[in-house]
Amino acid sequence: QVQLVESGGGLVQPGGSLRLSCAVSGTVFTTEDMGWYRQGPGNKRDMVARITHHGTTTLADSVKDRFTISRDSAENMVYLEMNTLKPEDTADYYCYAYIWATELGGGDDYWGQGTRVTVSS
Predict the structure, then answer these.
(1) Would you say 51 and 32 are in contact if contact means Cβ atoms under 8 Å apart?
(2) pLDDT tens across 5-64, in order?
(3) How far is CA 93 from CA 26, 37, 70, in A?
(4) From CA 37, how far away is CA 22, in angstroms rounded?
(5) Handedness of CA 5, 7, 10, 12 (dihedral sign)
(6) Is 31 exposed, middle or buried (0-12, 13-18, 19+ CB in 10 A)?
(7) Are 35 and 55 in contact (CB under 8 A)?
(8) Distance between CA atoms of residues 60 and 48, nearest Å
């Protein structure tokens, strides 16, 4: 069973920094794209950052100057470095990965359980 587990969320003051980590475990043949999504109160789940298996990154306009996504393919982990945090960054952050569990059958979307980030004084 493939699992994605996030860590690193918590309470931080505006202007502060936080680093989120996501570990993939279970039977994995290959991990393709990975990313981070977030959902604040009353909002839908939106893409924050994506990274391909080649290392190409995409960031949402609202975070592109402040956040950085990276991955360690050998360890099947993805990270989100968040800097200059704002109250509007407060949300539940979810790790995403498109994973082929086996060589046959194609891939599937996998999601972590979410980690809460609260930006407040």
Answers:
(1) no
(2) 999 999 999 999 999 999 999 989 999 999 999 999 889 999 999 999 999 999 999 999
(3) 21, 6, 15
(4) 12
(5) negative
(6) buried
(7) no
(8) 5
